[in-house]
Amino acid sequence: MRWFAVTAESASLASAARKLGLSPATVSRGLTELETRLGAKLVERTTRSLALTEQGRLFQEDARRILVEIEAAEEALSARQKAPAGRLAISAPSLLGRAWLAPLLPEFLATYPRISVDLLLLDRPVRLVEEGLDAALVVGRLESSGLIARKLGDIRMIVCAAPSYLAARGVPETPEDLAHHECLIFADAGAAPEWRFKTGGGERTTIVPPARLTSNALDVVVAAAVQGRGLVRAPLWQVAADLAAGRLVSVLENYERPPAPLHIVFTKTRAGLPKLRAFVDFIFAGRRF
To answer: What is the pLDDT confidence band of residue 9, given thresholds at 50, 70 and 90?
Structure first.
C-alpha cells in the first residue's frame, strides 16, 4: 500500500521507481499484480507518464487515510512511555480560537517545552485525518462521525450593556425593543447583523438590530459597551469579568437561545498520543464557560 501511494503521487514509473529504490519494471509488475488482485484498473500508464483512473483515485484516498492512521498508531505505541513532545496541530473556530484558546497557549508551551503547536483558525467543518490535524474544537451539535468527543462546556450568548447606558436609555424588555436602542455588532464586513432569540413560547426568532458600531473584532464592541455606547451580544466567557465587576449588566435573559455545546474531537488513533492527552487535560483545566 505504501509503494502504491508513492507511485500514485509520481509523474512516471521512472520517478516512482527512484523514490522506492526499485526498477521501473518491478514497479510496473507490482501495479499489474495489484490491479489483478483488486479486479480494477488503477493507473493509465505510458513510458513517460502515469495517470490515475477514477478507481485509482478513490483507492489512493483510502490508502492515504489508512497510512496516516497506521503512522499515528505507531507513533502512539512508541510514545506512550515518553514525555509529551512533538508538533500538535489543532483547529478552532476563529473567534473562539483568538479570544479563548490563544491566550491559553503561552502557558501550555511553557509547561510543555517539547511540544510545538500549529493553531489553524477555520470557520468551516474540518477533516482531521485528511488535513493532518490532531484535534479540533467544535461548537454546536456533533454529527455521528466515529470521532472521540469530550465536552468542554456550553457557550451561552448574552445581551448586555453598561449601567450608565441602561440608566439613560432604559432596559429592553423584549427583543423587539432593540429597534429603539443603539447596538454594537460583532460581524464580518458586509454580513447581515442578526441576533437570534427564543420567543415566550420557546420558538426561534431573529432580530436585525440597528447597528451603531459594527466590527469583526469582538473585543472592540465589548469595550464600547463597557464605555456606555450601547448593547452588545457576546459569549458569556468574553464578558464574564465585566459582569462580575458591574461594568456590564445582562438583559433579555428570558429570551436567550439554549447554549451551544463545545467539544474537542479527535480520532481513536490519536487518543493515546502523550502530546494530545497533555493538551486536552490542559484546556479542561483552563475552561471558563
So the answer is: confident
Q: Is 126 left (phi over 0), alpha (psi -120 to 50) or beta?
A: beta
Q: What percent of the chain has pLDDT over 90?
A: 44
* 2-79 shares its CATH topology with 157-255: no
Residue 52 makes CB contacts below 8 A (sequence gap 6+) with 8, 42, 43, 44, 60
**What single-letter amino acid sits at 204?**
R
Rounded CA separation 156/37 (Å): 55
* pLDDT tens by residue, 200-216: 777 888 999 999 999 98
187 vs 55: CA distance, rounded Å: 44
Q: What angle do CA 227, 186, 285 make, to 5 degrees?
A: 85
CATH code for the structural domain at 86-156+260-286: 3.40.190.10
